[in-house]
Amino acid sequence: MNIKNYISIILLILATSIASAQVKFEAKVSKKKLGVNERLRIDFEMNKDGDNFVPPSFADFDVVGGPNTSMSNYSRNGKRSYSKTYSYFLAPKKRGKFTIKQATIEIDGEIYKTFPITINVTAAVDKPNGNTTASDIASENIHLVAEVSKTNPYLNEAITVVYKLYVSLETGVSNWREKDNPRYNDFWSQNIEIKGLNIEKGEYKGEEYRYVVLKKTVLYPQKTGELKLEPLVLDITVEVPTNRRDIFGRPMMSKVPKIVTAGSRTINVKPLPEQGKPSDFKGAVGDYSFKVSTSKTQLNATESLQAKIEVAGKGNLNLFELPKLTVPSSLEVYEPEHQENVRTNLSGMQGRISDTYTIVPQYRGKYPIPSISFSYFDPDTESYKRITSDEIVIDVLEGPTAAISNTESSTEGIKQTINPNTNTFAFIKTTSDWSSIKTEPFFKSKGFWSLVLLPFLAIPLAIVVRRKKDERDADVQGNRIRKADRLAKKYLSAAKKTLGQKEAFYLALEKALHNYLKAKLNIETSDFNKEKIENLLAERQVESGVVSDFISILENCELARYTPITQVTMQNDYDKAAKTISLIDKQLR
């Protein structure tokens, strides 16, 4: 063997010893892309034993297994090999891209670090892999199912999604939590409250299972075409039987973390048909009844009534507008009060919605409220339907008469006969009777000087009047008192005319008090009771003493029908009513 061969052998031995002395510390993952319902295994491997191993934080993952430590130390063909591994099993918390940061370890006094690894977590997959044997058993014995009532609904037609967790008879579930909640894009959604989890028996693919209903949701599609329902993902602890037995011979259970998904569903939403669509259709879909009603049809001017437009039934009650009320211009109409009494269950929304308008007529006469139509689409018959209300006539018995109404009523039905005249210009006078008029010149006369000086004399008077008016306008309290006194006289004028006639007086007095409250508090006669009046006046900051006086006058009106009353008592009640109305008007806020 020559010198060259010796040198080659020496170099090979040196290279082998250097390679064997090189320290390796690295992180390896089972996959870099996985579904949110899959597990990730990460191994931290080293070829030389070390101390003070510090794993990364795993902030975006749940540690469902580990750390597990494995070590091998063997020699083959005179070559020694050493390996040590720390293993973790991780479950991603949500979708997204996450970075597992560096792990560190100390080997022979030196600190070694792994490289960061980026993991891409996608939506749940249908067949998660990488599970352990116990997890495989759990996968075969537990299933999350989304039951959809209808996969091809019309636009705005209700569908329901019921999520059921099926568990085989040999398997148990200790706890669960929602890991990824579906987002119902392009749907109006409403979750149905579930009170307690009731275990029921059922079948899954022909086999006997137990199941619980975890979630119920009602959906109204707001868009046509193919719409995706994202899956519900649950993180569950499953108890599966093992091959071991306890002292009583029963199989021992092993707890396995498991992520299950209901899978995504596709809903094909049909548009509403254009053929036969009414012109007044506003998007109502379901089965409805329609009604227009008024609280009264006869009243006096300045009194109020309520007109209610109401739709009741089953459908998308919260997702369309009610028809508008149209009335003659002589009726004063206020903005409607919208009310909803709607409950949502598995069959969708049910109940009624209404708009209530307050109407105050200003003049005497008869005013028609035209009929109103309401259209909706019935998905059961796949056709449009229209309901039309009857015309309602409001009869205003007492009150001022509108000028235009007088003109119309005075000319209505009058026919004028026109007699032709042969002398078309007979109305023109063709003769004159002139007479001599002798007058004094107007210039420098008394009338002339009076007209010249009158503006100068009126200026001081106008100044005085203006000052008095400003003082009166500035007297806010005085104006309120005067206004209240006028209001009391207005409402009590009818009662004053019947002083001395017991029944007529107290009937007019009670009506005056009711009309005053209706005008001020906007409540109906049918709603009157003493307790409500006291509460309403107290809410409007009327003093309790004034409220008590008002209630006592109402009581006197009731008692007067059954007890003898003198003229003096009637006068006292009238004065007390006038004073009380005036005080209430001053204090109302």
Automatic annotation (TrEMBL):
What name does the UniProt record give this protein?
Answer: BatD family protein
Cytoplasm among keywords: no
Is the Membrane keyword given for this protein?
Answer: yes
Which superkingdom?
Bacteria
Leader sequence residues: 1-21
Which organism does this record belong to?
Answer: Winogradskyella damuponensis
Taxonomic lineage is:
Bacteria, Pseudomonadati, Bacteroidota, Flavobacteriia, Flavobacteriales
Report keywords, A-Z.
Membrane, Signal, Transmembrane, Transmembrane helix
Membrane-traversing stretches: 447-465
